[in-house]
Specification:
single chain; alpha+beta; Nuclear Transport Factor 2, Chain: A; eight-stranded antiparallel beta sheet; 13 helices; 8 strands; 12% strand
Length: 408
């Protein structure tokens, strides 16, 4: 009796796992296809943009060893005169390698807008020669191909504050589908294991069987990478995922470090000096082997007012096309005096994971090999709802066998 009860329980469990897998697949299949394809397109975004923008990412100024870069506020004025946008510049990215162009950004966000195109009144980058003040290129980042792909991937062109749940909830369901798919795939015994790991199509002509193998075998191999991609993607949709991951990797800490409280009673600099230039000079000396650093220019923005009493945080990137290795340096916004230096190496493992989440999500953490894995995994995930639907449709439309005619 006991073996029979165990078999019934196992059958009951498998039955509900199959139903969960099927119903979720039918409900969210189309969304998963779109999210997976846009994810695949976005994987090599940094590489394509680097190649497309190489003409103006370097300014090609001659004899720079005998010249000095212009002050930040002077460069701002040059941009305002040459570009003529009514909005103020929002932040700047300064390369450590002074053979590269400085990159300023116009960026405004309206949190009350309902769609992507209204949410960002302006999002442009300006490449400028820091020695001459000549604007080399203005890029409309809002209408950039990869920005549009990201918006679909993130929120289906909806406001990012709540549109992320339109994507996040189906991806959460997809995560459960991946787990249930592995359970359904798992072979009962060694004999059936061989045909689960690779295609056995030598003597098989039935398209239903081939389609089933495509769904189950490709799904199995992609599922482990897809689990990582899904979880790191959910990081951006749900705060509880962020909190859980930080708690796990930090060894049980629940409070992410916050340094907004750092202040000093310093008075503003004299009109002949500028805090940004003093800050830039210190960063160049502190992080000579870094890639670039960025900070907010501190102007009043129509939709995003800065705290007038906050310090000036500077984010220092360690690599050109990766984000996980970055350091934070905090300065007094009035005097440019150093308040706190937090190099990458001083962070706890939870902070390092949070910084690495994007690079893990797109595979960049493993370089070109990781990006290729992320690309292939995303394309397979895009195929799973299609092959899964065909499995269900084939079984549904399968003609019942004719009853045998009784012999006299």
């Amino acid at each position: 009796m006991k073996p029979r009860t165990s078999k019934k329980k196992k059958s009951f469990f498998k039955t509900w796992i199959k139903k969960l897998h099927l119903y979720f697949g039918l409900a969210i299949g189309f969304i998963i296809i779109i999210v997976s394809i846009t994810g695949a397109l976005y994987v090599f975004k940094e590489d394509f943009e680097k190649a497309a923008r190489k003409e103006f990412t370097h300014h090609h100024e001659a004899n720079t060893s005998t010249k000095s870069v212009l002050p930040i506020n002077t460069l701002e004025k040059h941009i305002e005169q040459q570009v003529g946008e009514p909005y103020p510049l929002h932040w700047v990215e300064i390369p450590i390698d002074k053979s590269k162009s400085y990159k300023f950004f116009y960026f405004e966000r309206d949190p009350d807008a309902w769609n992507y195109f209204q949410e960002y009144p302006i999002y442009k980058s300006v490449y400028i020669n820091p020695y001459s003040g000549k604007v080399l290129s203005v890029q409309d980042e809002k209408m950039n191909f990869f920005a549009l792909v990201k918006s679909v991937h993130w929120s289906f062109f909806l406001n990012s504050d709540w549109g992320k749940y339109v994507v996040g909830i189906p991806v959460l369901c997809f995560l459960l589908m991946l787990i249930s798919g592995i359970i359904l795939w798992w072979p009962k015994n060694k004999a059936s294991r061989k045909q689960r790991f690779w295609f056995q199509w030598k003597n098989i002509k039935n398209w239903r069987r081939k389609n089933y193998d495509l769904h189950s075998i490709l799904g199995f191999y992609a599922s482990f990478i897809a689990l990582i991609v899904a979880i790191t993607g959910l990081f951006y949709s749900f705060y509880f995922i962020q909190a859980a991951l930080y708690f796990t990797f930090s060894g049980g800490s629940t409070a992410y470090p916050d340094y907004a409280h750092l202040k000093s009673p310093d008075k503003p600099l004299a009109p002949t000096e500028h805090v940004f230039d003093r800050v830039a000079k210190q960063i160049d000396q502190m992080y000579p082997d870094a890639s670039a650093y960025s900070f907010d220019l501190g102007h009043e923005h129509p939709f995003d007012h800065e705290d007038p009493d906050s310090n000036l945080p500077v984010y220092v990137r360690g690599y050109d096309q990766k984000y996980y290795k970055y350091s934070e340096v905090f300065f007094d916004k009035n005097s440019g005096r150093l308040l706190l230096n937090r190099p990458y190496e001083s962070r706890n493992f939870g902070e390092k994971y949070i910084a690495a989440n994007y690079d893990i999500h797109v595979g960049a953490i493993l370089g070109i090999f990781g990006k290729i894995l992320a690309l292939i995994s995303s394309l397979i995930c895009a195929s799973l709802p299609i092959t899964g639907f065909l499995v269900w449709w084939g079984r549904k439309k399968k003609k019942p066998k004719k009853a045998a005619i009784a012999q006299p």
